[in-house]
Amino acid sequence: MAKDPYAPKDAPPSDVEHIKIKSNYLRGSLAETLEDRITGSIPEDDNRLMKHHGSYMQDDRDLRNERTKQKLEPAYQFMLRIRAAGGIITPSQWLVIDELAQKYANGTIRLTTRQSFQLHGIIKWNMKTTVKAINETLLTTYAACGDVNRNVMCNPNPYQSEVHGEVYDWANRISEHLLPQSRAYHELWLDGEKIVDSQDTAEQEPIYKNVYLPRKFKIGIAVPPSNDVDVYSQDLGFIAIVENGKLAGFNVTAGGGMGMTHGDTATYPQLGRVVGFCTPEQAVDVAEKTVTIQRDYGDRSVRKHARFKYTIDDRGIDWYKEELNRRLGYALQPAREYRFEHNGDRYGWVKGSNGKWHLTLFIQNGRVADDDQGHLIMTGLREIAKVHKGDYRLTANQNLVIGNVSGQSKRKIESLAEQYGLTSGLNVSALRRNSMACVALPTCGLAMAESERYLPSLISKLETILAGEGLQEQEIVIRMTGCPNGCARASLGEIGFIGKAPGKYNLYLGASFNGDRLNKMYRENIGEDEILAELKPIIGRYARERQEGEHFGDFVIRAGIINAVVSGTDFHA
Ligand code: SRM
Ligand code: SF4
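The joint structure predicted for all components is written out below.
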């Protein structure tokens, strides 16, 4: 049973638990503190609740020292996360997000690793107008962050349009079903009618109760052979099983998660394990019951130990299976055959089985902005959205698909994409195409090192090494995060970097190309010169000694450069 490394089960609940319970279903004093004109900030208790509404208070860390010197309060601002299950939106919704980014945020849009959008730099007094406009366009920020189920990811597979349509529909249903029910969001942001004392009224959270979850919860659906959503990194994953061209159901995975803390071996990234198969109609029930298991058994004392992966690892995967079957009232069927080939995106034009065309674009680290080298990504996507009749789909790798383009419109979309430099991203090296970096500085309050602003230049140097070995077309998954929280799933990079201090990273090697094996630390706390010096000889050996079709992550293990990680519990061994 429980070998809880932190706390006996009767340890007192953490502060956040008290804040949630006292909050009257996520209200707290947000209504007043958002109106307070004296400061651009909100108190910490409200900030904790604000996350459930899809926003984090931040400050611009580039300006922190200067403002402290000038005895000014930090440059407080808010990040807003907009969720859309499976990452599909209409061109008119895109235009609204684009306009809000120009008007109230920092003029850019950030496509995230979970197929959501982030706007950064919104000041407190513009929050309500922004959230309202998002809701008016039928998108939401509700439960984009916080101790609830987050955006449900889903493969934006443009090839098999019919199966994708069905899978996407289930992603939406799971997402809707697990949304919090509290009217606090409507009251606060949408001028919904106030419920005076929700403790006594009909307002209830049938799934979350008034305690919500011990920690965030994440669900993703993959459609093999693509593991683009990194299904094993999810708390709960569904792997679509397609038989005779039809969706037969899903294999269910449980207990994945990427976050850890440097120096604390009781925290670790972990991969979900396949526990069985369910029919499509059972998927919502499996998700609900799993969420309630985590609600009831997750650690509410130590937040570092509160993710579902620890609930499972402490008790064993068989315990979860039994508890799930018990709550379902039926047993999951045995898992079915499937095979993943990769966890990245496939770029360029493809024709779907519905006869429509889809253009997958490489958007470096998901940052939609214009630059001074002729890449007018923001302007280009805006101009395309004005004429495009299909959809925009975000991928789980921070990229974007211009989806469902008719044969007649293809030429027009293509020429706009070329005109604004959007397609130039398709000609970058195979390494860059498979790269991902989290936001980190200057907005992320937890960043220990640069990520989004640094990885592109590090890749340029690695490209020179790879080209020297004739490997410029070799696909290698490379990922970086500015701290060990894992927002760009760096523990699943064949080459992974996790920030340790300004300019210093831990280097990890040995994850698989299809996302079914974690990497392992190879060198600790090294700067750029050492990174390049360490990787150069390994890349050289890979060029000379690899076997036919062998991926880099597999090679470093076969060559004895690093040991394979079989389970996250051995990650630090
Ligand atoms: Fe994340 C916290 C950004 C995906 C694990 N994440 C944060 C915060 C909100 C920082 C904070 O708490 O103050 C970051 C905001 C930075 C900023 O300025 O925008 C942040 N996370 C992101 C995004 C935007 C990264 C990106 O470059 O795309 C991703 C938004 C996803 C979305 O749309 O919902 C993002 N975060 C992830 C992922 C990847 C995933 O979900 O597939 C993970 C690892 C998977 C997992 O959860 O295990 C992830 N973020 C974390 C954690 C560590 C959780 C843990 O288990 O310990 C934190 C810190 C926390 O929760 O305390 C965190
Ligand atoms: Fe911030 Fe760390 Fe997440 Fe990067 S991994 S966005 S630095 S919390």
